[in-house]
Amino acid sequence: LGEPLGRGAMGVVRVATRKSDGCKFALKTIPKAGPQSLSGKTPTGEAMSIWERKVRDEVSLHFALGASLDIVTLHDGFEDEAGVHLLIDLCDGGDLLSGASCWTPFSEATAAPMIRGMLRALAACHEHGVVHRDVKPANFLFMRESDGRNRLKLSDFGLAARIPAIGATLTEQCGTYAYLSPEMARRRPYDFKIDAWAAGVVAYMLLAGEPPFADWDAIREGRSPTKDGLLRNIRRGKPDTPIENLPLSPGAKSLLQNLLHVDPDKRMSCKEAAEHYWVREKGAA
Length: 285
Description:
Keywords: ATP-binding, Kinase, Nucleotide-binding, Serine/threonine-protein kinase, Transferase. This is Protein kinase domain-containing protein. Belongs to the protein kinase superfamily. One of its GO terms (molecular function) is ATP binding. The chain is an alpha+beta fold. It is about 35% helix and about 15% strand. It has nine helices and nine strands. The strands form three sheets. It has a five-stranded antiparallel β-sheet with strand order 1-2-3-5-4, with helices on one face. Strands 6-9 form a two-stranded antiparallel sheet. Helix 2 packs antiparallel against helix 4 and helix 4 packs antiparallel against helix 7 (about 250-260). It is globular. The relative contact order is 0.11.
């Protein structure tokens, strides 16, 4: 095992090298006592039980997705008294916005392959009945392939859940506020389309160089932005800079408009968006 690559609320990630062939993986260790134990706190027995169940659900969902070119693969998992250890793809090329200024847009030619990979990964999850529920740039990591190229992979299934049947919905509120869909911001039932909305937010950020939704009134007035101001603008569903005013091709605007449709019934699915003509034409490797 190597030195820790990172430490977060969920645990520690280290580089692990397979002795037989020198192949490198990432080993994610999640403490059984829960995230509180990382800060020296002692969780209650009930909290530990809930946490263990949550971790087991995450592992089960991730294993069910199998090997995929567009999703971080869970190769193996084991546990001991201290924690659960997950052997996953080593993605040490940074995340979707690593090294980029949030306020500098990518060209369409550069952004399209990343958007295509993002949509394909989410579509693969949905085909397995899994909704990710935490789509954001930090959860798309680059893995260096043997030919030196970077491949984008979806990671972190800590908030993922199964949707048991076609037409079924979920109601649990979770995720990262800036990427919540209007239906979740309104506390309404939701389905796979929340991932499509979040993918639209990320695509907008890549192409416009700014987030579509924020508490812009507070920012302009020099006040601290609030969660309520952000959620109010998400519920309205109108980006501060309208999509039609962005300096983009008609195809790129069409994709964003279809992903950021307030009505989930009219919103493109991730599978449909991955086959959008702009994605197919611009996103071909």
